[in-house]
Amino acid sequence: MVSEKPWTPVDVLRLLMAWLLALCAGQLIAGQFAPGGVFLTNEDRVAALVVQILSFHVMTLIIVGVLLFRRGISWSAAFGLGAPRLWLTLGIGAMIGMLVLPPAWALGQLSALGLEKIGFALKPQQAVQLVQGAASTGERALTALMAVGLAPVVEEVLFRGIIYPTVKQVGYPRLAVWGTAFFFAAIHATPAIFAPLFLLGALLTHLYERTGNLLAPIATHIVFNLVNFLWLTNPELVRRWFGASA
Known about the structure:
The protein has 10 helices and no strands. By secondary structure, it is mainly alpha-helical.
């Protein structure tokens, strides 16, 4: 079970405001590398990607670190990272990440078909566009770092580690679960994958609640993103993993 946290809703509101300011500043700076919305060179794309990583992922961890420092609590104590049976926790998280992929893919396909039938114009997620558009080794490495290494850690710290227990502690446990799941799905800004990400967000929260260790949902999230990344870059490998026909 997730333990009581020493920070307050006001602390979290300040954190979110700082996070949004950093995110907006990053988007404005990254936009300077794509005049007219088009990257003129691969170097511009890489530079914009670095800015996005710094403004979203790195700044989020810095802002959370400041909050924990001000409240006198370590990362380990704040998110249960020192809980016993670490390898079992990571293994359970990784296994759930593999098990959730097929139903998530199926639900995403159904959502896309439904949206297309009502005439909704679908666009790939921005992260998918970055992976598919990577034209150099450096850019592919950065997209892999962002999608597989940084995004799962940062998003779990923010949504499950900070926001979820805060809303729960003020007396709204159901809103804490479903509200953070909604927010988590919404920031990916892709209607076709909203439903699977919404359910994934609720599952990740449940996993954190059951284990009391944020490493469990982080492991699930990493595996989920890793397999999706490989599907975009090496689909044949993923087909072999899941025993699907070519």
